[in-house]
Structures are given as C-alpha cells and as structure tokens.
Design a protein that fits this description.
Strand order of the largest sheet of chain A: 1-2
Largest sheet of chain B: none
Shape of chain A: globular
Order of helices and strands of chain B: HHHHHHHHHHHH
Number of strands of chain B: 0
Oligomer: heterodimer
Largest sheet of chain A: 2 strands, antiparallel
CATH superfamily of the largest domain in chain A: MetI-like
Helix content of chain A: over 70%
Low-confidence stretches of chain B: 1-17
CATH class of chain B: Mainly Alpha
CATH architecture of chain B: Orthogonal Bundle
Strand content of chain A: under 5%
Number of domains of chain A: 2
CATH class of the largest domain in chain A: Mainly Alpha
Distance between the termini of chain A: 17 Å
Structural class of chain B: mainly alpha
Largest interface: A-B, 54 and 48 residues
Number of helices of chain A: 14
CATH topology of chain B: MetI-like fold
Number of helices of chain B: 12
C-alpha cells in the first residue's frame, strides 16, 4: 500500500470513531432528557421503575449520577470505550459477557445469510440486466420488490409453518437439540466450537436449526443487491471494453457473467454492509419466531423486562459492529477501485 | 429598486407554473406502468379506508358507528368459536378468543396509515430544515449536521427505535416520537444534496440580493426546489414506516389493548402455529400488500425522477 492509501484508511478510521462518539453522546443525552434528575436516572439504571429510594441511593453513588453533566458524559464515554455497559439486573451478569455469548450466535446465521443473499443478488441482478426489458427482467423485479415489502415475521412464520411443521424437514424452534451437551467454548461461535471439539452430532444439529433463519435473512436482504447489480451491469454493458469483449467473439453468456459481472460487483462492497445492517434488524424478529437465542432474543427479552442496561449495551455494540463493517467496506472499495482513493 | 416586486413575482410565477406542469407530467408517466397502477389502487384503497374508518374511530371509539362498517364486532369474545378456520362467515377465521380476524385487521389499519403519514411528513419537514440549512450554510454547520446524520444512519432504524421507545416507556406516543427522532436523517441527506446543487443558481442568488427573508428563501426557493427526489423516496418510505411500526407491534411495543394491531396479531398468531395458521398469516399478508402498494408507486416515481425510463 502506498502513502495515499494509508492516509485514506486513517481518514476513514477517524470518521468511524467520530461517528461512534456522536452516537454515544446522542444516546446519553436522550437518557438525560427522559430522566432529568438523579433519582429518575437511577431508576433507569436499576432496571425497575418501582425501586425504593433506599435502593436507588447506592446506584446513584455507584454510577456517579449526581455529578455535573459534563463529568457524567466523560464517565459514560470511559465506560463505553472500555466495554463496561453495567450489570444486567435480570441475569445478574455483566452485559458485555452476555453480548459476547449472544452476538456470535446471531452473526453465525446472519453472515451466512448475507453471503447467500450476495450470491442470489449477483446472479439475479446479472440475469435481469442481460434480459433487459423482457418479461424475465420484470419477473426478477417483481420478486425482489415483494421481498422488500415482506415483513420479516411473515416470511419466518411461513417458512416455519410449511417447511418445519407441515413438511417436517427441519426443526421449527430452538438453536440446537436441547438434549445434546454443549461443547466447551473455545472459539466463541457455537458451530466452530462444535467443530473444534469434533462433536459432529452437535454441529449437524446446529446446522439443521440454522437453515431456516439463514434462508429468511437471505430472502429479505437480497433485493437491494439485485437492484444495484442490475443497474451497474447495465452501465458496464454500455462501455467500450465490454463491446470489445463481445466483438472478440467471446460468447455472450461468458462475457456477461465473466467480464461484466466481475466489474459490476465492485461497488457492491459498500451495499453488503447495508444488507448486514438490514439483516441485523431483521434478526430481532426472526430469532423471536424461531426461538433462536441470539442477540435479537436478548433484545426482545430486554424489551419485555424494561432492561435499559441491556438495550443500550446491545444498541452500541450493534452500532460498533456496523461501523467497523462500514470501515472495512470503505477500505476494501478503495483497494478494489483505486479511483475512490483520489477523492 | 423600482422593479423589485416585479422580479420576484415573475420568478415565483414561473416556478409555480412549472411545478404544476411537472406534477401533471409525472402523473401521466406514472400511470403508463401497469405495476404502478396496481400500486396506486392499493394505496388509494388503503388510505381511503383509513380516512373513513379513522374518522369513525376518532368520533365513536370502539362501539356503534365505529364498528358498523366491519363484518363483525372486533371486540366480541366468543370462546365457542375460538380459532375458527376461515369460512364464508369469518373470511379470515377467528383468533384464540373467537374474535373475527378480518374485522380486527380493518379496525387496525387507520392507525398504520396515520402513523406512516405523520412520521414521513415530520421526517421531511425536520430533515428539510436541517438539510437545507446545512447545505446552504456549509462549513462547520454542515460538518456537524452530517456527522450527526452519519451516527443515526450507522444503525438500523429498527434497533434505534426499539431502544428509544423503550426509554420513552413503550407507549404509543413514545413509539411515534421515537420514529420521528430516527426518521429525519435520510431526508436531511436528500435536501442537503439538492440544496448544494441549486444554491449557486441565479434565481437563488437573485433572491438573496433582493434581501428576501430567510423564511421565504427557505420555503419558496430552497425547500420546494429540492423536493423532487424526496417525494419519490417518501412514497416508498410510507411502506418502510408501516413495516417498522408493525415489527415493533410484533415485539409488543406501543400497544394499547384492546385496540388491535396488525403486527401484534401476527405475533399472537405465531404462538398458535401450526394449528391456527390463519391468525399469523393474514395480518402479515395485509401488511405485505399495503407495503407493496407503496413500493410499486415509489419505485416507478424514482425511475421517473432519475430519467431511467423512455418518455
């Protein structure tokens, strides 16, 4: 990498840190607008709206809620950037530990779903572009518009009903067969743990339970990639080098899927992050329906229990995950397409 | 100085007449596409129903004329017919309490329409104000505003709305407020981009030389002339708000029992799978069809705005 690329990466990294910083300040000021005095704040931190004054006083001391606001912002920053989101009052464990358990489970099927949706999106988009203004083009468009408009709970419920309950092909609920014993936690991700321990029955059970959530994620998020691939493909197919490829006598199919698609795929890098953000939101509902105990399940539990500590912790961690993904995408885009670095 | 009012009137006239012509032209292009016509029909039926039924609900609450248009009373318990499968009397079946699902869906719809219109309109106004100012002033104002929108847009809207609405106490007002807080940044981006394009054009500079008040400059020149891409996106966005709102209702946020909600009906329906499939599927399908209506219209409008169709 030359000097220019390095400054590009550094500039993007500074932007990313700054964005996270503003998000934390926003959430902090929101809490303070809602709870303008230390007692109300302590109620939020304690996780129960009916706590007595004597229960609240130690919380005020512990979190320093009676200090001036600017000191509290600094304290909050310090806590967030050291990964200390407080203790979950319901599970009585640090929130960061719970997130460390739940987040990999979600990423496991969300990332697989994203990879699947990128593959579907690339090929449907290229296909639609090659059949421009023909019935096949409109069919592809109709399908992805329908998946855009699809509430994720409808799709998940339909899959659960037909594939799991009616056809009995896959298990309808849970993350793994509950009678199996869990392999030791070495690599954070349950599937990798099972593979590490050579526990094949556990791994196969995990994969069986993962299929429906993964397909749901892939179906709700491929539309944006199809649409973008189609439009960038149409741009590439107008270029001189693509015409030259055709004139050289390379078959149309090979030219479209080999030459044009390869060039049209570059701008997609940034859109994959968009699909990731979209699927993380979708995962909340998908996990609820399939009783899959990941970060979405944790969020739903926090909503039911009015558990603010857990909610703020997960919100910031998800934001962090997406900001990092964005940064990687930006850098990757810069590496793949040198023109971007010149901006 | 003597012709100052004339100049201004002249500009105002040409812009307004051009706007109305353009509006007609867009409509004509819009209805050339059969998919967009389907979308328009869905949207008009949905909004029409929402206005009629919404007024009845507003005036009469949960009884009398408010339920007169529905096939059954959506609030009558009848445990003898609980989870009654769909037939000619209960077209979409009944739920676990024996309440008619179709009636409950129809009763719930005005709320979705009201919330989506409210959230998108406030998003356009707040986003318009911030976007136009940030694009017009530039420099530090612009930097700060854009970093803030970045922070909002870095998170999926749903997760931020969940966090904020839970902080606000899981009430319907809190939920609407949370949606409004989260929904403006994308519009600020649109307005900023458009303002940057037009702020150095002659007519804006001329109005500045004429010492037009900021209020007038904002509404008459910058806001109105930036609105084309915003309208196309907003048409699609009504559907997004309905999707987000029903997902929140699915999670149990912002409910006001006994008033039904499409998302929460689907949520209770999932609990009755696999026997009571109609309870989960039909409310979900209703949301799907409504959102498809908005998506079809919005998609066609975006094609028109970005000149991607053959005239």
């Amino acid at each position: 990498m030359d000097a220019r690329s390095i400054t590009f990466v550094i500039r993007r990294a500074i932007y990313a840190v700054f964005t996270l910083f503003i998000l934390v300040v926003l959430i902090f000021s929101l809490i303070h607008i809602i709870a303008p005095n230390p007692i109300a704040l302590a109620k939020i931190y304690s996780g129960s709206p009916h706590a007595t004054r004597s229960q609240l006083l130690p919380i005020i001391k512990e979190y320093g809620l009676d200090l001036p606001v600017y000191l509290q912002v600094l304290d909050y920053m310090k806590l967030v950037f050291t990964g200390n989101f407080g203790i979950d009052p319901i599970k009585d464990q640090p929130v960061i530990h719970l997130i460390a358990i739940y987040l990999p489970r979600t990423l496991e099927f969300v990332l697989t779903g994203i990879i699947l949706s990128v593959i579907i999106g690339l090929f449907t988009g290229a296909y639609a572009a090659s059949k421009r203004r023909k019935p096949a083009d409109s069919t592809v468009k109709g399908i992805y518009l329908a998946t855009w408009a699809m509430p994720s709970f409808l799709l998940a419920a339909v899959f659960q009903l037909f594939i799991a309950y009616d056809l009995k092909l896959l298990p309808p609920v849970h993350m793994v067969n509950p009678t199996l014993s869990t392999p030791p936690d070495v690599l954070a991700f349950p599937l990798l743990n099972a593979l590490w321990a050579h526990d094949w029955t556990y791994a196969i059970s995990l994969i069986h339970h993962m299929v429906l959530p993964t397909i749901t994620v892939a179906v709700i998020s491929f539309g944006v990639i199809t649409r973008l691939t189609r439009s960038t493909m149409l741009d590439v197919m107008e270029t001189d080098y693509f015409r030259l490829t055709l004139m050289k006598g390379i078959g149309r199919r090979k030219a479209i899927y080999g030459v044009a698609l390869r060039n049209a795929a570059i701008p997609l890098v940034t859109y994959i992050v968009l699909a990731l953000a979209y699927s993380m939101a979708g995962a909340v509902v998908i996990e609820d329906i399939f009783s899959y105990h990941g970060i979405g399940y944790y969020i739903v539990q926090a909503v039911y229990n009015l558990d603010y500590t857990a909610l703020l912790g997960t919100t910031i961690i998800i934001a962090l995950a997406i900001i990092i993904a964005n940064l990687i995408a930006d850098v990757l885009y810069g590496v793949l397409d040198p023109r971007v670095r010149l901006e | 100085m003597i012709n100052e009012p004339l100049v201004e009137e002249g500009i105002a006239n040409t812009t307004s007449s051009r706007n109305s012509n353009r509006g007609l032209q867009y409509m004509r292009l819009l209805v050339k596409d059969p998919a967009a016509i389907i979308g328009l029909v869905i949207v008009f039926v949905f909004l029409g129903w929402a206005v009629v039924q919404g007024f009845l609900e507003l005036l009469y609450g949960q009884s009398g004329p408010a339920v007169a248009l529905l096939p059954h009373n959506p609030f009558t318990y009848n445990l003898q017919i609980n989870l009654h499968p769909p037939d000619h009397s209960y077209i979409f079946g009944t739920n676990t309490y024996g309440e008619d699902i179709l009636s409950r869906m129809l009763y719930a719809m005005p709320r979705d329409a009201f919330i989506s219109v409210l959230v998108v309109l406030s998003g356009v106004l707040i986003g318009g104000l911030i976007g136009v100012i940030s694009g017009y002033r530039g420099k530090l104002t612009d930097d700060i505003a854009m970093r803030v929108t970045d922070a909002f847009l870095s998170l999926p809207a749903l997760i931020l709305v969940i966090a904020i609405s839970v902080l606000l106490g899981e009430t319907l007002t809190g939920l609407i407020l949370a949606l409004v807080v989260v929904w403006w940044p994308i519009y600020a981006r649109f307005f900023r981009a458009e303002t940057l394009k037009i702020k150095n054009l002659d007519y804006v500079q001329a109005s500045k030389l004429n010492k037009v008040s900021f209020f007038r400059l904002f509404f008459k020149y910058l806001f109105i002339n930036s609105i084309d891409p915003v309208i196309a996106y907003a048409a699609l966005d009504f559907g997004n708000v309905i999707l987000t709102y029903s997902t929140l209702a699915f999670l149990g946020i912002g409910l006001e029992p006994p008033i039904p909600e499409l998302g929460s009906m689907a949520s209770s329906g999932v609990g009755t799978l696999p026997t009571g499939w109609w309870y989960a599927i039909f409310p979900g399908l209703a949301i799907l069809i409504i959102v498809i209506g908005f998506v079809l219209v919005g998609d066609r409008m975006q094609d028109i705005i970005s000149n991607r169709i053959n005239y």
